[in-house]
Amino acid sequence: MSVNNNSEQDVFSWSKLCEVLDVKLKDVARKDDITALHAEIEELKVENAKLKCDVKLLSDRLEMVDRKCRSTNIVVNGLCCTNPHAGKNRFVDVCKNMIGVDMIISHTRMLSSGKTFIFTLDTYTDVHTVLSAKGKLMEQQIYVHKDYTPDELNTRYNLRRFAKSLAHKNEYKVRLGEFCVFINDKRYSWSNGNLLASSELDAKILSDILADYIGGIVLNGRTTGDDFGDFSFCGVMGSSVIDYCFVSSNFLTYVNKFQIASEPFSDHMPLCLEMKISSVRLNIDTQNGLDRLYWKNSHCQSYQENLSNRLCNTSILNEISVDEMVNVVIANIKSANVKMPKKKYFVPRQKWFDWRCYRFRTVMRKHLKEYRSNHSIENRHRYYSSRVNFQNVCKQNKMKYHNNNLRKLQYVTCSKDWWQLSNSLKDRSISDIGDLRADDFVKHFSVLLLDSHDQKISWCMPPWFDPFLDSPFELCELNTVLKKLKLSKSPGDDGIPYEFYKYGPPCLHNYMLSLYNYIFLHEDIPSSFKRSILIPLHKKGVKNVVTNYRGLSLINTLCKVFCNIILNRLIHWVSRNNILNEFQAGFRKE
Description:
Elements: H1 2-30, H2 34-70, E1 73-77, H3 84-98, E2 105-111, E3 116-121, H4 124-132, H5 134-138, E4 143-146, H6 149-153, H7 155-169, E5 174-178, H8 179-183, H9 203-213, E6 216-218, E7 233-234, E8 239-240, E9 243-248, E10 255-260, E11 271-275, H10 300-311, H11 322-336, H12 355-373, H13 377-410, H14 415-424, H15 438-448, H16 467-470, H17 475-483, H18 499-502, H19 506-522, E12 532-538, E13 549-555, H20 557-577
Antiparallel strand pairs: 1-3, 1-4, 2-3, 5-9, 6-9, 7-8, 10-11, 12-13
């Protein structure tokens, strides 16, 4: 009580000081001496600044006293009593039966015709005991929380200040999200903390304030997709609408639809705003895109049978060109490929998210949909329990996934396993190449790959014939190359990986051998062997400079098999004839 009396005396004394300052200002206004007038104005400014500091200290003291007085207050909903005395008695009986504590209530206040009661308990320990046991009280449909009445009283005042700030800064078009976040925006100076997280803000108050100051409108419950104003917050204590979307009147014509989605990422539902914005449609040629084939070991036998039926009557004809021969191979492989039926596969965003998480999430969404259609207490508890189960399953899967990665890391034996594990943990969904365009890379690599016609060949060895080098290829040479092919490699523009050649039927290998011998003996290179897909890889420096990129060429696998056959023959010929001396060993495998 002494603190309150001192605060009232301070307020009275400072009010008298304000009256004295007002009298001095009137005296200053009657004087004609400009110099004396400026001096007195400076003195008044100093006194005014001191007065502001004193008022700030007084307001802080009053706020501290008020917070101390309200620290023993609790707000209780669900007692359903018609007078304060009955509500007090029922709450005391409930605390004694459910918690086992005899509560001493010094003051009772009834709000909303008995729906809400504010009780002043004896000590803060009693408040902590009641708040710790609010889960047990919920079984009797009695809900308790702290007293946030001062924040509720200042809600309208802060909303007006917020609307004035938006109108003054002229930055308001669309604001969407939890409204207490807007109030606590760091760009604005607000003295209060969490204003709206514990108070029920009437949407009409919000819309009226926005309409008065900035001509805005709240979209909740007023647009297509949210006709009835769905709950935006669903928690264990209840549901409410504390997430809003409001737009300025001149921006309202661009709004197509607003809705509150049924995606329980948290207690707050996502707010979805669909805009009507015209855009330029780009005519992109997608026909030249890479139509890649994907190999499945389970379809190996079916693929071999289909390809054998197509190639059994096919032979190399001298009448057709070498490009047509290559097209025959590619066309038959693509037609023999066993196409997977178009199904909606489950592709998780996180690697730890499995089918078990998917099932629990489906159940949670089902209960959320039931709760949004029927706002009953049973549906709310059913939804919240399913959400807790889903979160627990996700937490278990995360721990299991990270423990498996740690276990794999302990048993890494080579650099290849290390990089596979390291790359699997990286997020490679976005590749940033800066402000470079495709034309920049075309110009850069065109200069690098340009043939130099200045260096003419002055002399070369006359043609000579070697029986081993110039003889036609044999099937054993092709099979040796196919066995050594590495799997899961990127193909060229034909989109056919190594697996379709390596696990192909014998008729495919015979056809490939005939094709390679035709190319080798007639010295006729197919045009597809001269094309490649050039991928720029950033190696060093700034990403906006094309010279910091190295080109990676993806050649057709049919061409790479042909090159490997020639390479093996040259290596065997060099080693058999001792062409290289013992000091040239840097590129040798043995």
